[in-house]
Amino acid sequence: MKSVLIVDDAAFMRMAIKKILEKNGYEIAGEAENGEEGVRKYNELRPDIVTLDITMPEMDGLTALKAIKTIDKNAKVIIVSAMGQEAFVRDAIMRGAQSFIVKPFTEEHVLKVLNSI
Amino acid sequence: MSKLTRDPMLEMFIFETAQLLEQLEQIIINSEKSKSYSTQNINEIFRIMHTIKGSSAMMLYDDISILAHSMEDLFYFVREKKPLAMDFSELTDLILDGADFIKTELSKIEGDGKADGKSNELIENIKKFLSTLKEKNSLEDEVCITKEKLLPIKEQKYYIGSGALSGTPTKKILKATIYFEEGCQMENVRAFSIIHNFKGIADDISYYPSDIIENDETEEVIRKDGFCIYLKTEYSADTIREILMQTVFLRHLELEEVDEVDEAIQRQKSKEIVLEGPLPSTVEEKMAEKVQTIEAQTHSLNQNIISVNVSRLDKLMDLVGEMVIAEAMVVQNPDLKELELDNFDKAARQLNKITGEIQDIVMAIRMVPLSGTFHKMNRIVRDMSKKLNKEVELTIIGEKIEVDKNIIEHISDPLMHLMRNTLDHGIETTEKRLAKGKTSIGTIILEAKNVGSDVMIIIKDDGKGLDKEKILKKAKENGLLYKAEGDMTDKEIYNLIFLPGFSTKDSVTEYSGRGVGMDVVTRNIETIGGTVSVDSFLDKGTIVTLKIPLTLAIIDGMNIKVGKSCYTIPTVSIKESFRPLERDIIVEPNGNEMIMVRGQCYPILRLHELYGVNTEITGFMDGIFVMVEQDEKSLCIFADELLGQQQVVVKLLPNYITNFKKINGLAGCTLLGDGSISLILDIAGLVNI
Predict the structure, then answer these.
(1) What is the CA radius of gyration of chain A?
(2) Do B280 and A91 touch (CB under 8 A)?
(3) Range of the structural domain that residue A105 is part of
(4) Residue B417, Cβ neighbours under 10 Å: how many?
(5) What pLDDT, on a 0 to 100 scale, did the predictor assign at position B408?
(6) Beta carbons within 10 angstroms of residue B119's beta carbon
(7) CA angle B82-B86-B87, nearest 5°?
(8) With CB atoms 3.0 to 4.6 Å apart as the test, which of A51, A68, B492, B497 could cross-link to B488 if both were Cys?
(9) Window B:200-229, CB contacts with A under 8 Å
(10) Does ipTM come in above 0.85?
(11) For the domain that residue A40 is a member of, what is the CATH number?
(12) What pLDDT digit, counting tens, does each position of B372-389 carry?
């Protein structure tokens, strides 16, 4: 069972992703509500996959991605983005993000991306 | 659907969005006060709107989502371009209107109705504002745009003319056309991702559409015609196919070996992206440091919070109440009377300790800071002072003080009403204030402080104060004078305004009037066992004080006996209890009974007379006195005997009694350990009888 760390400042989004993943055999390693906490939890929990929101307080997703990659260059990170954030997603891919999810998402969409990792 | 069974996602959506809106309002009002938006605040507003946009789109509330999107765009512009010529007040109005719309929709959703409001007009206004903003700040705008456009071009290497692809025959050229699944979104970014993954696998890559980086409209082209890549590589077609097949949302792949890159694509001036180039990072250097500090903090505290439905908390509270009663019923069971039960007593003490702790925790769970309610007043002050053309500053003190959630719900409306009144009638217009030699800006202080088991909420303004004559006149007209005019103190006169049917304003204004008087405030506060009082000084201002209990549910009480009945006095009101000396009793010629205690004279209240209870103990020497105090007034209650102290669960008097008869001086009732009923005395009511 793959473990996932969900990083998003919106509790609603965390819940949405968590519900989909739990239902489909993923283990939720933890949740974080900003980039800084996300990086800290990554270091602590070493999950198989991280879902990472872009727009967050304290530390945004791109910065967190960089930090996570510094801790573990093989970290599998999936960016959770919204329409209009294409440039950020490209940046994230260049920085080693594995894939991305676009909000609003469906269960199918999330699973396809997660399963491809 | 009932609240308990509502979809947890919906519940979370409502909860979080409401919280974000409150935050938003606070930021905006603070920013307006300081006449500028700090970078931090702009970021915060942007983020809030971004989050609401995302969540509401997931819940399919399109009107909310689109509105949030337009506000996000607006603040994106403000954040990136930092426009100088901006009408702050208009911006604030726009955002507050938007927030109000979302709030209204939320409450519709919460009431299990449909969010059917249309946000088109608001969106139009926001767009209009944004475009004027862009126009006004066109100069800076242009500079920024050119900068932005220039950067990527520098990094682009044009493939055309290099001849690299066709020049080296040892390596194959592969042409791949990729079609994505419908609805996977951001096809151009996905295409970019594929190209990025070929780093190290292919030497030369060209692709069409070529402008996937700078032009987000290419996603349409890719959706329709697919994404076409030419690769020069040593790897076999099968290996490349395998790699490409791993693409997420891949619908169809065409792969073939070709001799030359399509003319059409050459003409399109395909570009090669710089795979090895520096990351377009802005924060790179700082990062290394930051990561280290974060690693060091790994074990710092984790705050875990869950949100719980209030109805469950209410239920829990009820159950704890029942448990307190049940515990008393066991421990003080009449069957156990006069038995020597050492072990039982030990166990009972343990039980008592644990129930006490549970109770404390449950109470603590229900405590909420006043800040939410207090900060709502900011909005009222802002909106009203703008419309009434008065300048008012609101200062909030003690917002961190916590009270029971039920109580918060009851004080929100009265506070709003008082606030509106103060703004409308209390604070004068700027001209009048200046004429009186006051500062042009009126001040209102909203303060909370703990006083014993009560919380005092004080609203103090520096307005014109209450008009004594007017109040008296009005009270006389309405037959509200309960005493001779001459006997009344100023304070008593001012407090007439809280009586039902009193209103000095002849015409009801939009704000404070609303067809109801200040008695609504009194009624609301009294239902939670609080009191309201007012004091005023002509041209100096008015002070309204609300005294409310911290909690309603469980109180410490002293049980007393009168005849066969039992009464409970809240312990906080008790000053002392004593047996009197004969010589301290004073009987006035008209029959009024008083008692001297340490040189002070206090009225005596015979409970058995007040409630018509038969008792054999009527002589003061046979019974006991309990001195109680409320609002600086004291009274000695005469009862048969003290039964002991106990925590009691307050239950309201049932409707079939209150509907039938209004009984003065009773706050409710409770069950005692032996199953009998005790009436809880309302000391505030008694001292004013």
Answers:
(1) 12
(2) yes
(3) 3-115
(4) 19
(5) 85
(6) 22
(7) 150
(8) B492
(9) 213, 216
(10) no
(11) 3.40.50.2300
(12) 888 888 888 888 888 888
